[in-house]
């Protein structure tokens, strides 16, 4: 899941990359075209009927290949005659209409990821077979981006002033810890005053019900769905609320369901969502792999290389110790740790660019500002994405300790075991300590409702956010799932797109139901810095 508060601003940059080829497969019978008859869909509790929204599509911008529309959905699915919310939706039609299979719904992660921006921005990362055979559809979930959004400020100036209050990355020392906790407590109070009703109806289960309305609006009976990072827990929630309506579902870089729900929710949680998941552990392992591969390469290929893995790790540790005492301009120790973890998400060009920034800092020079790609051709490519949007979903859905004073102890414990990344991932959850709302209609399991066809679960070995163990747990907890191992690097196989093997299995599964053989391991097409 994306880091809630990137070090250089309030939003992460999505990365655009490329797609490809084929591997051997095992055919699993039973998946037909996307317009196959709809299976009966048991619902856990009876609810009043909800009108299917009408979608009126038009080009997002003149000449854009993307179409935009707005869907109206009920704030409360149990009270559909009440207040409604707007969902911003985008679509790009299949490149080969004569071979079209159906619609593929995509959630690009978060919580807080605006699908109307991130999916168009990363369209080229999708395997070519999926772009040719499916209409690609995404949306900004309720509370996020261009949809009816959680926004706790009256003006952009107010939002900017608040954003300057929490220290970059995470707090270091008593004074910064107070500044951080005070800022996020103030954010919670602002949000509660502004729209308390909305805060209680932006849960993952609410969004899963929205997704079912969008599926029905487009006339696709069984759902085709690709969810990455936070999108995996959204997909698992849909599969258990509407199990009969799943045709094909890929969950890439998984959040373990028990880590999200906290297990026994009757007790006060003793640790955070991300520490339960193991984000600190997997970030430390991925950082170690980055330093190992960098140190194994010459400086011409990895700018931060000190000539060997051991010397490069020691160089990184010296840099962190130096930045604690002597920041380089705005580059504090905490900002650099946060930038390091965030930059491990996308291998190419992220790892090489990270090595260059670390090398500049080791020379006492502030790195140059990053160059971002041009915005995608959609109507609103830069929606407001304040911290409160991710918090509204995450903190209302997933239990975290409610005492701000608990986080320093959790940080020190994680740092003893996993070093600098443990500090970053511990404090990422602290805004939940003082968040004012819990979901009115959440979903916390069970996770084993039988679906007509197996779910394909993808886990990456060296992922700085969602550990491989999360994919193993997801595959175990779903009623019928097949695990595909990506023995590679970065957060999500989709946006790193470094394995033709993964792309081939994913494409074949969506097109005709082919699953990889049990125990299949794919490897990246090339090793970083090679």
3D architecture notes:
This protein is α/β, with parallel strands linked by helices. 38% of the residues lie in helices and 12% in strands. The chain has 19 helices and 10 strands. It has helices spanning 115-121, 128-133, 156-163, 174-194, 196-199, 204-217, 230-241, 257-261, 273-277, 279-295, 309-325, 333-343, 350-362, 387-397, 406-418, 420-427, 468-477, 493-496, 500-512; strands at residues 58-59, 67-74, 84-92, 102-107, 134-139, 223-228, 246-252, 455-462, 481-489, 521-522. A 10-stranded mixed β-sheet has the order 1-2-3-5-4-6-7-8-9-10, sandwiched between helices. β8 (455-462), α17 and β9 (481-489) form a beta-alpha-beta unit. α10 (279-295) runs antiparallel to α16. It starts with 57 loop residues before the first strand and ends in an 8-residue tail after the last strand.
Main sheet: strands, sense, barrel = 10 strands, mixed
- List the uncertain runs: 2-30, 32-43
Strand order, largest beta sheet: 1-2-3-5-4-6-7-8-9-10
Structural class: alpha/beta
What portion of residues is helical?
25-40%
Order of helices and strands: EEEEHHEHHHHEHEHHHHHHHHHEHEHHE
Instruction: Compute the average pLDDT.
Output: 92
Distance between the termini: 27 Å
Number of strands: 10
